[in-house]
Amino acid sequence: MVSSHPKYRPDIDGLRAIAVLSVVGFHAFPSLLKGGFIGVDIFFVISGFLISSIIFGSLEQNNFKITEFYSRRIRRIFPALLLVLLTCYLLGWFALFANEYRQLGKHIFSGASFISNITLWTESGYFDNSAETKPLLHLWSLGIEEQFYIIWPLLLYFAWKRKMSILSLVIAVCFISFALNVGRVHHDVIGAFYAPQTRFWELLLGSLLAYLTLYPQKYWAVLNKLNLKLKKPIAQTLNANLLISPNMRSAFGGILIILGILFIIKERAFPGWWALLPCSGAVLIISAGPNTWLNRKILSNKILVWFGLISFPLYLWHWPLLSFARIVESQVPSPKIRLFIVLVSIILAWLTFELIEKPIRRHGQKKIVIALFMSMVMVGLIGFYCYKQNGFLTRPLVKNTEKAYSQFVGPLWKYTQNDTCLKRFPFAEAKDYTWWFCMLTKDEKPNLILLGDSLANQLYAGLSQNSVFSKYNILSIGTCDPAEVDQSKLTKNYTRSPCSGDRQLHQQELINHIIEKNADSLKYAILSLGGSVSDSDYILRLKRRVDFLEKNHLKVIIFMRPLSFTTNIQKCFPRPFSSTPPAKCEFNAAQREEIKTLFKPLREYFAKSNPQVIFFDQNDLFCSNGKCSMVRNGMPLMRDDVHISEYASIKVSKLFAKWAAKHVPEMIG
């Protein structure tokens, strides 16, 4: 008789310890443990094995209940998760700026809803904050795991009742998921990393192992069928090579995991084929059983088993603490601070396990489950409300400098696209892009067009709010450099970037068509350049685009590239708990002179070839008297290291209006 609960194996807890310590080590000291993130993949295999063993055993005994299964999951997952989510919310109230707290609110909602992987996937665009500033980033794996356990038990229950082949089902779904992973990882690595359908195969490997462990006769039945069909003694061959001695399997599995930690780095196309290293290693170690030397002597060691028992709360605690330290310091904390955080995480994990997880797990009362479920709903709603309230600008941390902090909430990027533009100038391909700029002031023919990437689009905020330009129907469209596309360098290799493959050509064709159709109304084209402006080939391609614009009777104005800064703009403002004072955020004007020098060949070329083209230097906004600053009148001029804030965009439009009155008076009159 198959038991509905597999016998406890301390070696699996030891393997859990290896997994969690690898992840913690990678997050705390990424340069030392570059492949430590594969610990999550080991977790997936372990989870698939243990949970599927319980499901298969319950189905065999005809006592599987969906409600009981999910009640057990709630008692296992919710207590520690609730504590961490609430702690992050409270820490954020006192330590985070409005934009950071708003994002945290969204991630609390996603974590409580177990959709963090989907949320992070949709955020992985051009304007996304770095991973280090997301305290709940690590909940992506919990999202995938719980999405799997919403679907998989129901699918198994249905197949069992219909007397379908469970083994065939597991193998088929596992193969499909793995194929989707391999097929996607090279053109959409972010999607392959976060999408549940490209990750389920890792849990299903554990499920397959669970099934073959509970029903070994099924394995031999498959081998015998193959033996008869192929008329070869493959059963003996497979037994000799694939089902090698347990000690060899365990050792080989350990080697695969070590190789994964040493040679898999985050820059590789992961998961893809690379994920087979940690997943196969975990399968081999678990399949070897508890009595092999590695499993008995190493993995069953009391210290590793202890870490395995607290692995879930340790996983939950370590990353938020590291992330908050990174945010507060506005830089990577020192190794001593990171080591201290790891030790604090271990203590918190042990306390969580002893005082919260164990007592609640022992209580199977329905009231506990309902209370946990309702608490998670409430925490999710609290996070959602924080997000909708833009991170509570009236908090003590930000109320005295509300205007400055509001620039970080993301007001500039509400100007990326609007329905007026999308309906008037539809572009079906844009649905495959991570970002697409399409803004139009009024539902009429445009008479001023902004061409370029985000450095052009960021000008829309100021121009559209400046009364001097109120007579213009401004169109901001496209995401790539405005120079004519070099078709000899186009490929069919697409990423989430809207300028990958041949997408830049498609955008150019769309925009040129818009210009030709609206040539009777368009008067001015403002270009912001992202290419190598000193390169002769680039200059020639830009000239061809300018020729096209002038052929359609547009006056071309080129905005010289704005300054960029390596200092995080938020370091310019005071933050609680930070050990470093706010940066002065002032610099000498050397970079501005470099930009002028960079643009000199371009300006000289166009002065001869297209003398009607004029150049505007927007860096007067940042610099005066030989000094440049990221802050003016207590307001941030930058939103990040490259893009200007909405406040700065408005200031640039005022500078441009004054400049235009002198150099293009007909534009203002």
Automatic annotation (TrEMBL):
<dbReference type="GO" id="GO:0009103">
    <property type="term" value="P:lipopolysaccharide biosynthetic process"/>
</dbReference>
<protein>
    <submittedName>
        <fullName>Acyltransferase 3</fullName>
    </submittedName>
</protein>
<keyword id="KW-0812">Transmembrane</keyword>
<feature type="domain" description="Acyltransferase 3">
    <location>
        <begin position="11"/>
        <end position="352"/>
    </location>
</feature>
<keyword id="KW-0012">Acyltransferase</keyword>
<keyword id="KW-0808">Transferase</keyword>
<feature type="transmembrane region" description="Helical">
    <location>
        <begin position="166"/>
        <end position="183"/>
    </location>
</feature>
<feature type="transmembrane region" description="Helical">
    <location>
        <begin position="368"/>
        <end position="385"/>
    </location>
</feature>
<feature type="transmembrane region" description="Helical">
    <location>
        <begin position="337"/>
        <end position="356"/>
    </location>
</feature>
<feature type="transmembrane region" description="Helical">
    <location>
        <begin position="242"/>
        <end position="265"/>
    </location>
</feature>
<dbReference type="InterPro" id="IPR050879">
    <property type="entry name" value="Acyltransferase_3"/>
</dbReference>
<dbReference type="InterPro" id="IPR043968">
    <property type="entry name" value="SGNH"/>
</dbReference>
<feature type="domain" description="SGNH">
    <location>
        <begin position="436"/>
        <end position="658"/>
    </location>
</feature>
<feature type="transmembrane region" description="Helical">
    <location>
        <begin position="137"/>
        <end position="159"/>
    </location>
</feature>
<keyword id="KW-0472">Membrane</keyword>
<dbReference type="GO" id="GO:0016747">
    <property type="term" value="F:acyltransferase activity, transferring groups other than amino-acyl groups"/>
</dbReference>
<feature type="transmembrane region" description="Helical">
    <location>
        <begin position="203"/>
        <end position="221"/>
    </location>
</feature>
<keyword id="KW-1133">Transmembrane helix</keyword>
<dbReference type="GO" id="GO:0016020">
    <property type="term" value="C:membrane"/>
</dbReference>
<dbReference type="Pfam" id="PF01757">
    <property type="entry name" value="Acyl_transf_3"/>
</dbReference>
<dbReference type="Pfam" id="PF19040">
    <property type="entry name" value="SGNH"/>
</dbReference>
<feature type="transmembrane region" description="Helical">
    <location>
        <begin position="271"/>
        <end position="291"/>
    </location>
</feature>
<feature type="transmembrane region" description="Helical">
    <location>
        <begin position="35"/>
        <end position="56"/>
    </location>
</feature>
<feature type="transmembrane region" description="Helical">
    <location>
        <begin position="77"/>
        <end position="96"/>
    </location>
</feature>
<feature type="transmembrane region" description="Helical">
    <location>
        <begin position="303"/>
        <end position="325"/>
    </location>
</feature>
<dbReference type="InterPro" id="IPR002656">
    <property type="entry name" value="Acyl_transf_3_dom"/>
</dbReference>
